[in-house]
Amino acid sequence: MERPGGKGQSVDLLVEAFRKGKPGAFEAIVRAHQDRVYSFCARMLSDREDALDAAQEVFLSAWRNLAGFRGEAALSTWLLRIAANRCLNRIRRRKSLSEREAPWPESPGEEGEGIIFQPAADETERPDRLAETCEMGEILTEALSRLDPGSRWMVLLSDVEGFSYEEIATLAEVPVGTVKSRLHRARMAMRRLLSPVA
Amino acid sequence: MDTMDCTQARNLLSEYQDGALDAEAVAALTAHLRGCGECAGSADSLLTVREQLRSLPHDPAPPELLARVLAAVEAEDRDARAGSTAGGADATRPFLSRFRFPLEAAAAVLLFASVYWYQRTSTPPVRPPSAPTARAPEATPPVDIPPEASSSTANVTPPAIRLPRGNPKTAKKEEAPAAAKPRAWTAADLPSVPAILASTNSERIVPVAPGPGPTIYPGRPGAPAYGERGSADAEGGADSRLSRSFAPPPSRLLRPLPYGRDIVVDVKPESREGVEERIAGAALRLGGIFERFDRGPGEAIPGAPGTVRVILPEAAAARFLEEMGRIGSIPPEGTPASTDLPAGPRPGTVAYAVHIRVR
Q1: B55 touches chain A (CB under 8 A)
Q2: Where exactly are the structural domains of chain A?
Q3: H helices present in chain A, as ranges
Q4: Rounded distance, CA B6 to CA A1, Å?
Q5: Which residue of A8, A111, B91, B294 has the smallest Cβ count within 10 Å?
Q6: Residue B42 sits at the chain A interface (C-beta within 8 Å)
Q7: For residue A35, what pLDDT is reported?
Q8: Residue B65 confidence class, pLDDT cut points 50, 70, 90
Q9: Can you tell me the mean pLDDT for B160-180?
Q10: A167/chain B closest Cα distance in angstroms
Q11: Could you tell me which residues come within 8 angstroms of residue A4 by beta carbon, excluding any fewer than 6 positions away?
Q12: Residues A56/B68, Cβ–Cβ less than 8 Å
């Protein structure tokens, strides 16, 4: 599994080539990162077209701002930060347009915390039933989509992309302690969702 | 020894698996997990979920993503290049919207300043002639109005006069030569004034053809009279063209008056009778016209104040003031400084209201 910064050296070379105006440099950057960015967007947005649009926006924003990229983090980390912001903006816009993804009313959960995932609307869509026909990846993706978007992107960045607590706290502009507690609740929710198949 | 309950232990599972707990918390949690099967099961299942998430593969991006990104970048690059050449995005903007605010403001200020400067320079204020007391008395002998002339306005017979005509800007330069080429002017040559209906306190006196009289505008022998063009000028001589080729047209808005528009004459009560007629006679002799009398409220009362309105050639203004000084005394406030009226009589003429005060 490729971690952020794992290809830092080669990416840095690509960024340098792009800054020098070498033809094809930006295309190489897109090719190197499009799967990761698109996957993140698709899991965040649960919609292929939305994910395509968001990924396109991410790379276009990167093309505009690569000159100011200082290399303090790996290019993949930088791109995923942009992707997280874009996806959250889209989710907020989507929420404002319709209340389909309105947060569930706060109520004490199993562990005295608010519900941070959306229960399946239909019993047949529960992950344990889906496990009979779906691959594990699809089950995980489905379980992720049941999480609240505010927690989903933290799980994706932390457990899928390998971001640290501090990186996520910086990106979310919240204290590290908040990131820890929200991640813990989201993971426990994932555990409950996946317990029949995990 | 287990010092932790299940709730505390489960709340620390994530950080424990992330390696974010300190040694003391790790020891306490490990001791609890060793003795609590349920919490140990939760820890195992949580670890499994996290390992599965960590091994979640990246979905391959659709092929159209790369094409769309490259197309969008190319379009934006093309727009940026177009914007940096040929005026950039301004080239496609409407004409007026291309101007930035500072440029517009500068242009507006420059335009205003240009128009203001042009307006100011196109009508230089008429400098009043030298003060009446400073004029050479020998140039124009004093004109005394015969007593019989002041008895009735119908008997006023204006002397021969020469009415200056032509461009008022050249009046001062051209007024002197009148003596060499005398020309008699009649009322028909006077500037037209609006007809005013005769009333109990106003009347209009139209001058008749004057007889021989004093020359008002003595000047250089051989030079053309005021308002008349000399031979070179009439023939389109070079001097005239040079002096006028760049002259702006006279302003239609401002009319110069050498002494303001009001003149106050103080007269003694015993001299009050017939003052209007004397003023009218003086105006007629100087080539002007006597427009009307405005007597004061006590019209029937001898010695009441009154006003006489006259229109004169511009060059005769100083002489007229001199005449007024003979009729009565002019207080300091009676001769205001020259002014440019926003409206007034025809160019080359001045109009005054002579206020008669009894002192």
Answers
A1: yes
A2: 8-97, 103-194
A3: 8-19, 25-45, 48-65, 75-97, 127-130, 136-145, 149-155, 165-172, 176-194
A4: 33
A5: B91
A6: yes
A7: 92
A8: very high
A9: 44
A10: 14
A11: A73, A74, A76, A77, A80, A161, A162, A163
A12: yes
Contact B18 A165 (CB under 8 A): yes
Contact list in B for residue A137 (CB cut-off 8 A) is 56-57
B7–A contact, CB cutoff 8 A? yes
Residue B59, min C-alpha distance to chain A (Å): 5
Test mutation, B44, B53, B55, chain A, max A CBs within 10 A:
B53
Task: Tell me the C-alpha distance between A46 and A1, whole Å.
Answer: 22
- Separation of CA A190 from chain center: 15
Kindly report the CATH number that applies to the domain delimited by A8-97: 1.10.1740.10
pTM exceeds 0.80 for this model: no
**Distance to chain A for B29, nearest Cα, Å:** 16
**Is B104 in a helix, a strand, or coil?**
helix
Topology agreement, domain A8-97 and domain A103-194: no
Asked whether the beta carbons of residue B53 and residue A55 sit closer than 8 angstroms, the reply is: no
Mean pLDDT in residue range B47-64: 86
Query: Which among B7, B20, B50 has CB closest to A187?
Result: B50
B76: number of Cβ within 10 Å: 13
Contact flag B65-A55 (C-beta cutoff 8 Å) = yes
pLDDT digits (tens, 9 = 90+) for B266-288: 888 888 888 888 888 888 888 88
Q: What is the average per-residue pLDDT within A40-48?
A: 89
Place A60 in a pLDDT band, splitting at 50, 70 and 90. Answer: very high
DSSP for A4-47, written as a single string: TTTTHHHHHHHHHHHHTT-TTHHHHHHHHHHHHHHHHHHHHH--
Whether B54 sits inside 8 A of A165 (CB atoms) is no
Segment B229-239 mean pLDDT:
42
For residue B117, the tally of other CB atoms under 10 A from its CB is: 10
Tell me whether A13 touches chain B (CB under 8 Å).
Answer: no
Q: For the domain A103-194, what is the CATH code? A: 1.10.10.10
